[in-house]
Structure formats: C-alpha cells, structure tokens
Amino acid sequence: MTAAPQPSSSSQPSLSPEPTEFPAVPGSADAVLAGLDPEQREVATALRGPVCVLAGAGTGKTRAITHRIAYGVRAGMLQPGSVLAVTFTNRAAGEMRGRLRQLGAPGVQARTFHSAALRQLQYFWPRAVGGELPRLLERKVQLVAEAAARTRVRLDRNELRDVTGELEWAKVTQTAPEDYAAALAKTGRDAPRDPAEITGIYRGYEQLKRDRGVIDFEDVLLLTVGVLQDRPDIAEQVHRQYQHFVVDEYQDVSPLQQRLLELWLGGRDSLCVVGDASQTIYSFTGATPDHLLDFRTRHPDATVVKLVRDYRSTPQVVHLANGVLSQATGRAAAARLELVAQRDAGPEPAFAEYADEPAEAEGTAWHIRRLIDAGVAPSSIAVLYRINAQSEVYEQALADRSVPYQMRGAERFFERPEVREAGVKLRGAAVAGKNDAMLDEAGRDGDLAAQVRAVLGTMGWSAEAPAGSGAARDRWESLAALVRLAEDFARARPGAALGDLVEELAERAAAQHAPTVEGVTLASLHAAKGLEWDAVFLVGLTEGMLPITYAKTPEQIEEERRLLYVGITRARVHLSLSWALSRSPGGRASRGPSRFLTGLRPGSGRGGGGAGAVSQGGVERGGADRGAAARRRRRGPVRCRVCGRTLTDAGEIKLMRCEDCPSDMDEGLYERLRDWRAVQAQQLGQPAYCVFTDKTLIAIAEAAPVNEQELSVISGVGKRKLDRYGADVLDLCAGREPSGEPVDEP
C-alpha cells in the first residue's frame, strides 16, 4: 500500500502570492495589455466583428475578456455605456464589474441574463403593456405544489423539486404545456413523472400565476423576448443603448437566452463569446454547448482564439484533467482543449479507497487537518461531492477535528447579522468623520484600516481569533474578512477615506462579491464551477454517484465525466480523489470506483491515453484511523430497531430506525441532553453540533443506553466522544445530574 502524499514545506511548490483585491489602475490603454500572454492579448485587441474565445479551465478567460473591454474603453474604441457583458451568476458579474473598475473602465454594464432582462422589462413595461410589472415570484415550489394538488397528483419533497426543475427546463427551451410530451420524445429526456401529469401541473402552474398576477424568473426572459419581438421601436432603443456584447460561459446558454441575445444584437456582429464545451454541466437546465460549437458556422468570419495555457494548476493536476477528457466521446469531446500547465511541479494527485462513507469522511478530515497544520489556509481547501445530501458526514467529521467550514450556497456573506451591523456602524462613522474622537485618534495618520479596526472593535473584533470554531469564531471571521478587505483597499488607494470604503462595500453587497472568509468549503461539483482552491478533495467517486444512477444516455454519461473534469480543475496544488466500498459501517463492499478513473488510478489498466505519471499517485485503503474503521466493520449491518430493515441512509443510521417508523423518544431526556450540549458547546467555544448532532441526540434519547457498550453502538458516538462525554450522557440517561467536566483532547 502506498500512502497518500503528505504536505511538507519541501514538497509543496512555491505559490505565487494571492492577487490583491485592489491592484493599481493601469496608466494607459497600452498598460492594460501588460502581463497578458500572446493569446490573451489577441483576445484583448480583437475589438471588431464576432470573436469566439475557446478557453480551457484555469487559462485566464475572465482576465482576457475584462482586459478586452477595458482596452477598448481606454483606447476610445468602446463607450462604457454601450457595452453589455453577460454572465451566469451574480458573483461572476460582480467580480467582472470589480475588475473593470480596477482597470479604469467603470460604467460598463456586467449582469446576468436575468438581471439585464429584468432591468429592461421594468423600464419598458409601462410603455409596452401599461401599469406596473407583475410581482416577481422568488420561489415557485409552493405554487407548483398547489398546481399538483389541484390536478390530484401527489408529490413528495424530492418529486416536487424534480417537477419544478422540469417546468424550468420546459420554459427555457420555449416549450409550451401542450408541446411538452412531444419535446420529451424529441430530446430523449427522462421525465420525473408521467408526461401527462407534468403537462397538467404545468398548465395549472401557469394559470395560478395569471390568477395571482405574478411572474417567475423564466417569464422575465420570455416577456423581454416578447417585447423586443413585438415592439420594433423598443428594440431600436435597446440597439442604440447597447452596441457591443460579451457573453461569458457561453457553453451554458439556453435556447431562450440565445434568442434574447439575438434580439439584443439585432443583426449586428459586435459580439465576443467565451466558453469551453468541456465544462458544459448544466444541460438539465436547458443549457447546450451547440451555440458555442456552431459559432463559426453562424459567423464564418469570426476570429477564434484558443486559450490553453493553464495558470491555475500544477502539471500533475493538469495531466490528470487531460487524462479524464482523453477518454471522452461525443461532440463536445471532439472540440476539447489540451491544457498546457504553466506552474511549477507539485505533488501527485492521491487516490484513496475506504471501507465505508464515515471512514472516507474521517480520512478526508484527517488529511485536511494535516494540511492546515502545515500552513494551508482553511479557506484554500474544498471538499466537493456530487449531491448536497453527501455533506452531512463531512460536516460532522470536520467538526470532530475542530476544522471550521462553510457551506457553498448557504447564507450570503452580506446577509449575516454581524456584517449588516458592521455596515451600519461603518456608515455612521463615515458620516461622523472628524467629530468622532475614536476615529480621529485611530486615523490620525490617515490610516483607514486603523479606523475600521477601531469601529469593528466596538463589536468585539480583536486581533486575536477566539478559540474553537463556534458562533463566536464565525462572527469573528466575518469581521476579520472586512478588516482584511479594508487593509487591502487602503494599500491600493492611499488617501481613501472611510466613506470610500463604505461605498465599495455597498457595491460589493449589491453584486454579492464577498471577501474571503476562513473555513473549508463544502460544495457540490455544480456549485464549485468558476471557483478554485489550493487543495481539493473529490469524495464519493463511486459508480452510481459519478456517474449518477439516473444518467443513462451517452450524452448524460459524458456530462457526468465533465463534472469530474470541472472538479479536478478546481485544484491548484493538492488533489485527492476518494471512494468508499460501502455506504454504511459493516455494509457489504458492493461498490467500486467511478468508471471515469479507469486508466488513471493505479491498478486500473490504461484508458484512452490518460494515465501516465498520474498513476504514480498512492492508494490509501481504509483511512487514517484504520483501527476505527476495523471497529466499524466489526459492528455488522445496521438494522432498524423497530422493523428490522437494514439501514443505508446516513440519517436513519444515526437514528437506528427508519424515518417512517414510530419514535419512542423520551422527550424529557432529549431536552436534558440539549441543555447539557449547549453548556458543553459554550465551554468549548464550538457550535453545538461539534458535541453531538441533533440526530445523535434523538438516537440517544430513543435508546436511553444504560452502559458504555449500549452508548457506543449509537452512530455519532465514536471512541473519542465516548471517552469525552460518555459519563455525562449515561448520567443524564439515568436521571442523574452530570458529574464531570469535558475531558481534554489528547
């Protein structure tokens, strides 16, 4: 057995420093081009006619297109207000606006398709239709559920989510309810329910919206298309406003978005599109790479530039990414880009096999702890999985090792209570100015960052982080992110006042362009698109999960392969790929590693030219704590203690019963356990789930164990927690007051 490569100061390639949030503004148009490689410079200077940029992962596509816009503006060839740059997320649009400001090109509109369309629709609706635009429905699930109930179709929570997604697909592909069944047959798409049922729900949903005077996000695009098609005078006004278009992530454009883009263009060809067919991972939403792949056919005179120099990842990571795509088939694969690594060499990707999912999570957390101890920042580490339901076991494993983490797609940074409070205090301080003695003292030498530290100090921020990883630490991390941002802002803009920073924060909040918060990122592969980290752990890479079970057609299988490619290319230096042979401790080892790793992992033979040096990565079997894995294997299958069924769901295993089986929980015991847990968490300075999760407490309250053996078999009560909390828990179960204090970690 070869151990996974371990972090050390000698084995890690030297990392270039993180780019500042606020680089100096270039002094001239020519200075905008400085630092671009030859292909990026071609993109930046190709300002006439249609341009297609085929950009591989990590090749600096955002850099190329923002410098293109900025160069055109600074050279006087583009008017800022005449440019519309379109991307797919608010975060990406905010990042693009920020970069353009830093390049000396403020005033350029960088928006998502929906944001740009909504702004136009709000402006033109009174003239085109009359009255105010109908209210926008932010969440359509409740209305879909009501439509289903009216058509007497019962949907559980998962089916409701799937049917809602199906309606979204129908709308972005411009499929009316009466055409839905035919569209399914034409595309070969699998419907989550009987097509006739979905057709009825679709009709009912549209009727409910009309009855209540609301529209959804897809309607925003449909209505904008309708207005531009039916009102030539309005279309002409839009054409006068916007004369140059840039579309990022063009491989993800849906037919509806493409139609809107064509109406914006109005037959003109001042268009630059950027994309990579190998990163098409949203076809379930209606996205298709066909518009990117057919661009040269539609625009025979287009300039096509290929970006293949990978500045993000080490040669070892790039080699593995190229190997994954070398085995791909289909139209997108035929247009794949062979990446060429530009970084120094780093450690080989590690392949790890585990007995079960909890062992995989514990092994992953152990390696993450090692990386952090070796100096890698938690915010530079990510754990990526195929579906969000996989996150729970990793949350617990990281919490057990006191590793802070953040969920991608969870609460937005600028919506956190402490961040909102900080914004109010900073705005108040900016207004007070010289009348605030504290600020006057802190910033007597013009030190903006000192003023921010003084203001946030009144909220409990200090230079030293609090111990542990609880709510106090989360609050501190939010405020620390604002302090770091202020320090970077002050360095980049000498002489800037507190009011300037407040304005910067307001712009970032509007764009959801958050500063970095310390904590390991947990995210699905889909949510990780467009992001990058120093260390990436790709977990759960088994057949049935990647590719996912419901991926049946060759096209669906290839999209799953592209998901793995996207995950691999998120890593800068450290990359780990792992899988578990069974789902639960003691389960039958019936699963195997993903087919996409064949020819890439050791001992799997050779695939379509993708192995090579990558196969030198070690295989780790069983995880870091092999004794713990052995203990779990000896337990045998976990069965429901009510009906006897073998349990496979992680939540049910924790409860030791099926979710649907009746609970015999001692409510009083559960409340005592919760109160005790709150005290323990407060003493440790950690969130409550670091002591025991809610489901583990429920399982304890249901089982009411009388000795350590009975307590130890409850999922979530490992040896460490048994030693630390066992005596207290057994006291509580026996109706006694806990007698001991938390046992210190060894």
Q: Beta fraction of the residues? A: 5-15%
Helix content: 40-55%
- Structure annotation, total helices: 30
Please tell me what the overall shape is.
globular
The low-confidence parts are: 1-19, 607-636, 742-746
CA-based gyration radius? 28 Å
Helices and strands: which structural class? Answer: alpha/beta
The beta-strand count equals 17
Mean pLDDT: 82
Distance between the termini: 28 Å
Largest sheet, in brief, is: 7 strands, parallel
Spatial order of the strands in the main sheet? Answer: 13-14-12-15-16-11-17
Structure description:
The chain has 746 residues and is of the alpha/beta class. Helix content is 46%, strand content 10%. The strands form four sheets. It has a seven-stranded parallel β-sheet with strand order 13-14-12-15-16-11-17, with helices on both faces.
Features:
746 residues; alpha/beta; 7-stranded parallel β-sheet; 6-stranded parallel β-sheet; disordered N terminus
Topology (SSEs and partners):
Blueprint: H1 29-32, H2 38-45, E1 51-55, H3 61-74, E2 83-87, H4 90-102, E3 109-112, H5 113-128, E4 135-136, H6 141-150, H7 157-172, H8 180-187, H9 195-212, E5 214-215, H10 217-230, H11 232-241, E6 244-247, H12 255-265, E7 271-275, H13 290-293, H14 295-298, E8 303-307, E9 309-310, H15 315-326, H16 331-334, E10 340-341, E11 350-356, H17 357-373, E12 381-385, H18 391-400, E13 405-407, H19 417-432, H20 437-442, H21 448-457, H22 471-492, H23 498-511, E14 520-524, E15 533-538, H24 554-568, E16 571-582, E17 619-621, H25 626-635, H26 650-655, H27 667-684, H28 694-703, H29 708-712, H30 719-733
Parallel strand pairs: 1-7, 1-8, 2-3, 2-6, 4-5, 6-7, 9-10, 11-16, 11-17, 12-14, 12-15, 13-14, 15-16
Helix pairs in contact: 2-3, 4-23, 5-10, 6-9, 10-12, 15-24, 17-18, 19-23, 21-22, 27-28
